[in-house]
Amino acid sequence: MHNRRLATAARWLALPCLAAAGLLAWYVTREPASPLAGEAPPDAALVSRGEYVARLSDCVACHSLPAGKPFAGGLEMATPLGSIHATNITPDRQTGIGTYSLADFDRAVRQGVAPGGRRLYPAMPYPSYAKLSDDDVRALYAFFMHGVPPVNQANLQSDIPWPLNLRWPIALWNGLFSPTTPYAVKPAQDALWNRGAYIVQGPGHCGSCHTPRGLAFNEKALDERGAPFLAGALLDGWYAPSLRGDHNTGLGRWSEADIVQFLKTGRNQHAVVFGSMTEAFNNSTQFMNDEDLTAIARYLKSLPGDRERDGAPWQYQALPATHLDTPGAQTYLTHCASCHGLDGKGQPEWMPPLAGATSALAKEDASAINITLNGSQRVVAQGQPDAYRMPAFREQLSDRQIADVLTFMRSAWGNRGGAVQAQAVAKLREHTDPASSSPIILHMR
């Protein structure tokens, strides 16, 4: 009798468990609905609009190899779980997206779901692209179907090991961390602010680099309602600085005109693009129209800083003569002063100032170490390569010498970023070396 009751109870318990398992299986394998239907005609104006949206979205940066065909994929990208490869998004019907309907394309771009319900890794910034408008998605689709030449190039498999390579948990991640609706206009703000917010949060996916991540690798905030939004983050061996109104480590000292100039020309009186931002400038921001650049600047300047996080406002302080007796100062005089000046003020718009630089005021020292080890990539503005580049000192200076010179730089002229340790230099030296067996950066951007 007792065993019969246990068996009956087990059957009753099994029913809700099976139902829950079935519901979970349906949820993680389903193809979400798309509000878009039909096809995009090869209308020249629509294709041109889509090309501009692709520039806003910087699609070419991840979906192209430096010497490869545009949008043909193949770029290897490091993740904490292993490396993945960007896919072919040309309209080739065998290896690209040539068989995608408009609804298929929409689901992939805004919801991270490929045809057949296959979940995309969120290295594809669909949590940001979720905010794209229906019209911009239609235009993007028209561009990729009618404005991009098809390239027959097979996609490469990721090397993420089992069971971490299972895709179904991504559906749960999406449910927790990815928006499901396009950007909604804020009636209390004007049209220019809303346009800037749309670009920054949506196609520009600025938060992918500049917003800190949580334990699940999710962006801690997706818009201005969250204080962590665009507050600065470590990524790929670089520190993407705050884009908020922080005086020291953000845009507090920048005017709207400074922001527009930086995004349009790659430089201004405060800084020159370097690190991952070089790629964003070369492929994206310089091609934006002036109205959109102004909108971005207006929106970013509306984001408040955090005095508690940022500290007291930086003020320039002349360098005392006694400060030049240290080993780091001597290395600076030998290798750095000819460009950046003994006063640390550089030659604005060409040789960036180190006095008051974000990399000299931020607690995070990754960018300062990385740029010193590996130098800067070529900035190409309006088709013209920049004549001035930060050289790499990987071969010339030891870990101790780099640590010393950066410690000097981060404590001179009123800077207070703090000392740099030789161990930190050694670690980043190894992990940014293409010959390393354990690189964290598989493509130096």
TrEMBL record:
Its cofactor is heme c. It comes from the Bacteria. Keywords: Cell membrane, Heme, Iron, Membrane, Metal-binding, Repeat, Signal. Heme c 2 binds at C206, C209, H210. It is found in: Cell membrane. Heme c 1 binds at C59, C62, H63. Gene3D superfamilies: Cytochrome c-like domain. Binds 3 heme c groups covalently per subunit. Its main location: membrane. Residues 45-148, 191-304, 323-413 form the Cytochrome c domain. It holds the Pfam family Cytochrom_C. It comes from Pseudomonas guariconensis. GO terms for cellular component: plasma membrane. This is Alcohol dehydrogenase. Heme c 3 binds at C336, C339, H340. GO terms for molecular function: electron transfer activity; heme binding; iron ion binding; oxidoreductase activity, acting on CH-OH group of donors.
